[in-house]
Amino acid sequence: MASSGNKNINAKLVLLGDVGAGKSSLVLRFVKGQFIEFQESTIGAAFFSQTVALNEATVKFEIWDTAGQERYHSLAPMYYRGAAAAIIVYDITNQTSFDRAKKWVQELQAQGNPNMVMALAGNKSDMLDARQVAAEEAQSYARENSLFFMETSAKTANNVNDLFYEIAKRLPLMQPASNPSGMVLVDRPADKATGASCCS
Amino acid sequence: MEGETTSYPPIEPSTFDLIVVGTGLPESVVAAAASAAGETVLHLDTNPFYGAHYASLPLNDFVTFLQSHSQPSEVPEAESDDSIPLVTRSLYSSLEISSHSDEPLKNSRRFNIDLAGPRVFLCSDSMIDVILKTGINQYMEFKSVDTSFVGDVDGKLMSVPDSRSAIFKDRSLSIIEKNRLMKFFKLVQAHFSEENEEDRIPEEDLESPFVEFLTKIGLSQKLKSIILYAIVNASYDQDNIKSCKDVINTKSGISRLALHHSSVGRFPNANGAMIYPIYGQGEVPQAFCRRAAVKGCIYVLRMPVVCVLKDKEYGTYKGVKLVSGQRLFSSRLILAPSFTPLVPSTAQASKSHDAGHTDAKEKVARGICITNNSIRPEVSNCLVFFPPKSLYPEQIALVRAFQLSNNVAVCPPGMFVTYLSAMTIDAVEGKKLLTAAINALFSIPFSGNDGSRGIDNSSENIEVKPTLLWSALYMQELNKFQGALDSISNMVMPDEHLDYNHLLDAIERFFQEIYPGKEFLATSSQSNEHPNYADSELDS
Confidence band (pLDDT; 50, 70, 90) for B343? Predict the structure, then answer.
């Protein structure tokens, strides 16, 4: 959920899209500035955070990756809960991945956080020769469904930071809490605090 | 459940170390532990949701799930001699629904109803340790249980003085009682501090019934009742040692008390000893499943297993056949408690077992009440304990009740959900226990007289009780099916306890049995989940 306080906003962001569309690559490029050509399907990492500084606020994205649970359409409700933003990713060289992206949009709309900022990302924009999905087609679909749209390339970094920056700008800064919030358990914060002070 | 008709691509690969059927909490913890230990795991569920018998569901789906698991499935014909059909056992019975208002069902999707309520976390219990060390604490948020009450014979609810500050603030206890209780808490603390050997409670006291020890140190009946039932949560009447099925000895009584005390203040932002996950218990199996997925476990919901495949030559377990027709193979199979492979010999054995032992089997009587108001004004989430004999003279089992509000996102605003449970051997007694507690807590509108408030039975009671809008009572089986073939194991049903500790112990023991020498849920290093760039800054 996007919770604001002192112009620091924490926002949960979820990634959706077909296997192989480049969800993890986008995150990896955004968070670490890296690209791995033959990235294995997502295992081993599924939770990242990254901060974007706007003029009026600082947005800390808590980015959830699917951990592969989308492969057989088995994402847990936990994944969507409290998400302030979602990026639906498809591969511009693969028409099926675009059709599947539309299904994910429907699913998100059904899960229903009406304030959620949704972005449609046509990834692999560096592979123009193999393009199957016209940018105009995706753009008009996005407009009809109130998504904002960008073509990105995790490989060349084209538009990747812009995508997250645009999402950050669109987050309602003073969003009324639509979900109840509770406490996140942190192990022995008191101990850690003492540890830090005695070391300094 | 939005009528999913997605057809899946075939599951790849087709051979695993472990196949787990059912995403209940024990299955999910084992899937996470096995994946973390390097095993290849496939985790399937028949349902379109996570959690199986540990799920939190919309009201309509909750009712449908209970109904569908209240009768055994049709026994299919064995297709061939190398396959054993998988059948569903009925695990719930005597389901009784009373609807006094259509508001709850109209808002069905706004509920997250626990199938296995009431259940809470103690802040210092071993389940919280596992949640922290696996890093799944970042997937969940919690709220404190505000307070606990214990019901007395006059139908009054007293606050439970479970800590020193609570004793201090309590207004119903006499000075003598306060001093004795304070002294007792100090005694227990000294016992565990291990500083002085002479501070330890003598061994013979540790082995004796806790109730006798409490009497010996001079605690009043009221205080004994609070400690035995509201803190230690003894299931049965401890004053009646002869007929009590579960006599708590001093050793386990004081360790439970110590756990309670160490839970208070473990997390600076938690109010008391207990917490509950926002969106319900069903979040817990989901979190373990996500953990398992991060470690490579493959997830497929909406995928029933139709039969278990046997090796023709040796008669041993080989794999499973899915409803899609696909055959998958593994060295080991773990099944949710509702599934049993129908081996001809065990089919007969289990039949005779049912006939012979039905009346002696302990069950958990569970109830869910939806009300229009809180048991206590200004209290959102609270526990209420009705000790034996407090509701009626023949009451032999403790009734636990747990009220939750909209602030944990389990019901719409303006409504409250209360879970009840009690141990019983038959449905009639079980329902009597729950109904007595419901009558003590709520006012029940007369049916056929809608619109007007029901007549409060205890009209001398000035407080206005919350009105019951909807309720469901049911019996849940506890016994576990014993494996039909080597390499196939059944997991456990939700137990009768209020916390997760017994369950986690059973899961860990099970894991150690099937994977001797492997570490049970190793600590997740920060770098695993946040591969060395946890908090990088980026300026745009």
Answer: low
Do the chains contact at B11 and A73, CB–CB below 8 Å? no
What is the predicted pLDDT for the residue at B155? 84
Positive or negative torsion for Cα B153, B381, B48, A66: negative
- Judged by CB atoms closer than 8 Å, whether chains meet at B138 and A47 is answered as yes
The Cα–Cα gap between B508 and B520 comes to: 7
- ipTM reported for the complex, 2 dp: 0.86
C-alpha closest to that of A61 among A174, A187, A165, A189: A165
Q: Do domains B2-89+278-358+480-514 and B163-263 have the same CATH topology?
A: no
One-letter amino acid at B304 equals P
Minimum Cα–Cα distance from B299: chain A residue: A69
Q: Looking at the domain B163-263, which fold is it?
A: Guanine Nucleotide Dissociation Inhibitor; domain 1 (1.10.405)
Residue A46 lies in a domain: yes
Q: Which of A137-146, B165-174, B378-387 has the lowest mean pLDDT?
A: B165-174
A71 neighbourhood in chain B, CB within 8 Å: 298-299
The residue ranges of every structural domain in chain B are 2-89+278-358+480-514, 163-263
Average pLDDT over residues B307-330: 93
Query: For residues B46 and B106, what is the distance between their CA atoms, to the nearest angstrom?
Result: 27
Does the structure show a pLDDT above 50 at B530? no
* Helix H or strand E encompassing A10: strand A8-17
Q: Using the beta-carbon criterion (under 8 Å), do A79 and B290 form an inter-chain contact?
A: yes
Contact of B251 with B188, CB cutoff 8 Å: no
pLDDT at B61: 97
Residues of A in contact with B299 (CB under 8 A): 68-69, 71-72, 74
* Fold (topology level) of B2-89+278-358+480-514: FAD/NAD(P)-binding domain (3.50.50)
Range(s) of the domain holding residue A16: 7-174
Q: Is B235 helix (H, G, I), strand (E, B) or coil?
A: coil
pLDDT of residue B71: 79
In a domain, A185, yes or no: no
DSSP secondary-structure letter at B123? Answer: T
Specify the pLDDT at position A144.
96
Residue B227: DSSP 8-state: I
Q: Which of B133-137, B241-245, B310-314 has the lowest mean pLDDT?
A: B241-245
Q: Check which CATH number belongs to the domain holding A96 and give it.
A: 3.40.50.300
Q: What angle do CA B455, B458, B460 make, to 5 degrees?
A: 110
Check pLDDT > 90 for residue B383.
yes
Dist. CA B173–CA B93, nearest whole Å: 42
Kindly determine whether residue B539 and residue A53, on different chains, have CB atoms separated by under 8 Å: yes
- Per-residue pLDDT of A19-70, as tens digits, reads 889 998 999 899 888 887 766 655 445 678 899 999 888 999 999 988 888 8
CB-hemisphere CA count at 13 Å for B80? 9
Q: What is the count of structural domains for chain A?
A: 1
Residue A196: inside a domain: no
Q: Does B139 touch chain A (CB under 8 A)?
A: yes
| CB nearest B409 (choices: A110, A180, A184) | A180
Query: What is the pLDDT at residue B199?
Result: 86
CA B540, CA A146: separation in Å to the nearest integer? 25
Indicate whether A87 belongs to any domain.
yes
Lowest mean pLDDT among B42-46, B88-92, B281-285: B88-92
Q: Which of B269, B287, B295 sits opposite A183 (nearest CB)?
A: B269
